[in-house]
Design a protein that fits this description.
About 80% of the residues lie in helices and about 0% in strands. The protein is mainly α. About 50% of the residues are buried.
Length: about 250
């Protein structure tokens, strides 16, 4: 259970007792637990959505649900997304990586986060009630299965960075276990719409990681975090489109 505790501590702001375990390589060894943490996050979000949808109009309920979503994760993955967006203005790979290491947020990152969150809020608000809570339940689990998958498929941009340490710590069965669990949850929660959404979401995560790998010479921890956010948004948009197009 040490891996589960470490995954909860890193991926959420939930305070768990016990001695801290340091090192991103240790987090890599806990990667098989990531979808379980995502499911726990989804349970909370589904509960928040059920309560807010009774008390408030759909748009305000969606705003409160997404706020709870980002607060529970400490904005960790949003920070990675903002860093990736800011890095796009760099002249070369080295310059882009130096921009991404800067703790300050730039114009690209700020505008990108605003648009991203607006899309996510609108996607949650426009989902039919019967699909909304189920999507919120399972999509966080799917998104958290992407870091081990992407870390295996793309080289690290820096030999000493978080992405490299995470990749080095991955166990052989982490990727298939995490992916199989996530897809089973998506199928159980959303059926065919979930599998379509999972395919689109994973394709979006691969597209982002491939693009950043070309720009940076590999992937970083920021890229893996950004992929989680992109997977969640792509899944929401696909499920919303599925509901809209079907009679």
């Amino acid at each position: 259970m040490t891996g589960l505790v470490l995954a909860v501590r890193y991926l959420t702001i939930v305070p768990l007792p016990g001695r801290p375990t340091h090192g991103v390589d240790a987090l890599g060894r806990a990667a098989g637990w990531f979808p379980v943490v995502g499911l726990g996050l989804g349970l909370v979000l589904a509960g928040v959505e059920r309560v807010t949808s009774v008390l408030f109009p759909s748009l305000l309920a969606a705003l409160l649900t997404v706020t709870a979503w980002k607060v529970l994760t400490g904005g960790l993955h949003l920070d990675g997304l903002a860093d990736c967006l800011d890095g796009l203005v760099g002249r070369d790979a080295e310059h882009r990586l130096s921009i991404m290491r800067d703790s300050r947020i730039g114009a690209f990152g700020a505008v990108g986060l605003i648009l991203f969150l607006l899309l996510e809020i609108a996607a949650v608000a426009e989902l039919p009630a019967g699909l909304r809570w189920r999507a919120l339940l399972v999509l966080p689990a799917l998104a958290r299965a992407t870091p081990p998958l992407l870390a295996r498929c793309f080289p690290p941009a820096k030999g000493e960075g978080h992405g490299a340490a995470f990749r080095n710590g991955l166990r052989a069965g982490a990727v298939p276990v995490a992916l199989a669990l996530a897809l089973a949850l998506v199928w159980g929660g959303l059926g065919v719409a979930g599998l379509v959404g999972a395919g689109t979401a994973l394709a979006a995560a691969f597209a982002l990681s491939g693009f950043m790998a070309v720009r940076l010479g590999g992937v970083t921890g920021d890229v893996l975090g950004a992929a989680i956010e992109v997977t969640e948004l792509a899944g929401l948009l696909t499920v919303s489109a599925w509901a809209h197009l079907r009679p």
